[in-house]
């Protein structure tokens, strides 16, 4: 059992500062509804119905990426899911935010602006350093309690995650509680047969570190997405070209090159790479090319190819457990969903133990008409859940545990 306080321990009529994880896919500047809203709505509704004054903190995207946006649209989706008004102020701890917080009545809900727009939120530092930031020092005195519901961001040492619980009585929200329990139980589970991990998505830096750490627990890695292309690059193929403004490939390649090469060297037998890739053809259609025929780095690839999917499917069928972290392609665009959906379909058809993680990836289940019931656990966490699998501590959970300890003393 976790050693943290929960909403059951919260005093009545509190002014509560709540950290959610509403980080979502963004299309044309607009956040797309996903399971994070639905799940966090339970915690927010419970707090508002109990008569607390509820102020919400959340982040969206990363500075420099095109998913780095304001949270105005998130407030609207959340209000819909909670079934109550959710006010929004485009400020984190300036006068506008302080006035809006002060004006709240019992049972009212207010979302503050993207925490990552405030300089104190990033970069990562110890809870002690983060507690000293102006962001934390300004907001904390306005509240009686801090609730962390953002399990899926608990692997980050940012001010809103580790700073506030050091200076306020701190509690876990309902999502934090249930995700913690599910993912910790999975981490200690033993399997008799082969264990497979499907690795994709855009956060290659996160998954490559975990592949290294999961060395003895995973028998087979099936790669796609950005991480997959970086491994192909290490294997000598000229792939991994950024499409548009985003720098997904080169920066992560520079940062992880040595680790990728050493993982490939040491675990080469366990790592399956795509044998073909899909891209946007001249008339906007899906086109495919065998990896061995790619001579120059001039195309941005957006999915693994059909032969790769056919190669990955039997590997999944033979597995006793399959863990998915990250999509194999840009599944939001139907033309490039074959890799992700093919793999999810294969998992859904077998009775292996399966976990699908990641705010974006879990959304593919709903988008393509798959049933959540066909998977053992669908986590709204990605990076946090794979870290939990390795047994690596989550700093924000540790800070909540330390806060509970202090309270008991
Ligand atoms: N080759 C690719 N190029 C660019 N984006 C990709 C590629 N393959 C997958 N993606 C994107 O990865 C996203 C999921 O990435 P990530 O955030 O790492 O996973 P999650 O949120 O599911 O943990 C999807 O939204 C998908 O569009
Ligand atoms: O969406 C998140 O992580 P995930 O994509 O690994 O599930 C979290 O909000 C953390 O975001 P970050 O990886 O930009 O720090």
From TrEMBL:
The protein's assembly and partners: Monomer.
Coiled coil location: none
This protein's UniProt keywords: ATP-binding, Cytoplasm, Glycolysis, Kinase, Nucleotide-binding, Transferase
EC class (word): transferase
Main subcellular localisation: cytoplasm
Entry's transmembrane regions: none
EC number: 2.7.2.3
Pathway linked to the protein: Carbohydrate degradation; glycolysis; pyruvate from D-glyceraldehyde 3-phosphate: step 2/5
Stated name of the protein: Phosphoglycerate kinase
Binding of substrate, residues: 21-23, 36, 59-62, 116, 156
Family: Belongs to the phosphoglycerate kinase family.
Binding site for ATP: 332, 358-361
Annotated source species: Halorubrum ezzemoulense (Halorubrum chaoviator)
Gene: pgk
UniProt keyword Cytoplasm present: yes
Catalytic function, reaction form: (2R)-3-phosphoglycerate + ATP = (2R)-3-phospho-glyceroyl phosphate + ADP
GO molecular function (one): kinase activity
Locations listed in the record: Cytoplasm
């Amino acid at each position: 059992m976790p050693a943290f306080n929960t909403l059951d321990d919260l005093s009545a009529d509190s002014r509560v500062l709540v950290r959610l994880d509403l980080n979502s896919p963004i299309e044309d500047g607009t956040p797309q509804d996903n399971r994070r809203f639905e799940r966090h709505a339970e915690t927010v509704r419970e707090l508002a119905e109990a008569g607390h004054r509820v102020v919400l903190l959340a982040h969206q995207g990363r500075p420099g990426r095109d998913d780095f946006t304001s949270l105005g649209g998130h407030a609207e989706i959340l209000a819909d899911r909670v079934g109550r008004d959710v006010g929004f102020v485009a400020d984190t701890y300036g006068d506008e935010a302080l006035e809006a917080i002060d004006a709240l009545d019992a049972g009212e809900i207010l979302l503050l602006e993207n925490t990552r727009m405030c300089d104190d939120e990033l970069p990562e530092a110890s809870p002690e350093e983060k507690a000293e930031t102006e962001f934390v020092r300004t907001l904390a005195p306005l509240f009686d309690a801090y609730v962390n519901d953002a399990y899926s961001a608990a692997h980050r040492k940012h001010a809103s995650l580790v700073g506030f619980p050091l200076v306020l009585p701190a509690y876990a929200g309902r999502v934090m509680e249930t995700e913690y329990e599910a993912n910790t139980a999975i981490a200690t589970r033993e399997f008799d047969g082969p264990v497979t991990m499907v690795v994709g998505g855009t956060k290659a830096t996160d998954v490559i570190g975990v592949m290294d750490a999961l060395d003895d627990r995973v028998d087979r890695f099936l790669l796609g997405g950005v991480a997959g292309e970086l491994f192909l690059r290490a294997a000598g193929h000229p792939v991994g070209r950024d499409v548009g403004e985003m720098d997904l490939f080169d920066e992560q390649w520079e940062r992880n090159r040595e680790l990728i090469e050493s993982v490939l060297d040491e675990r080469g037998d366990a790592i399956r790479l795509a044998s073909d890739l899909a891209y946007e053809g001249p008339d906007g259609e899906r086109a495919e090319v065998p990896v061995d025929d790619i001579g120059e780095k001039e195309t941005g690839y957006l999915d693994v190819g059909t032969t790769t999917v056919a190669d990955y499917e039997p590997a999944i069928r033979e597995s006793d457990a399959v863990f998915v972290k990250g999509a194999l392609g840009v599944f939001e665009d139907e033309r490039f969903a074959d890799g992700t959906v093919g793999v999810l379909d294969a998992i859904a058809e077998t009775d292996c133990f399966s976990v699908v993680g990641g705010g974006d990836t879990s959304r593919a289940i709903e988008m393509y008409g798959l049933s959540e019931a066909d998977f053992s656990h669908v986590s709204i966490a990605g990076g946090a859940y794979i870290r939990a699998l390795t047994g690596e501590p989550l700093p924000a959970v540790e800070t909540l545990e330390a806060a509970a300890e202090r309270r008991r003393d």
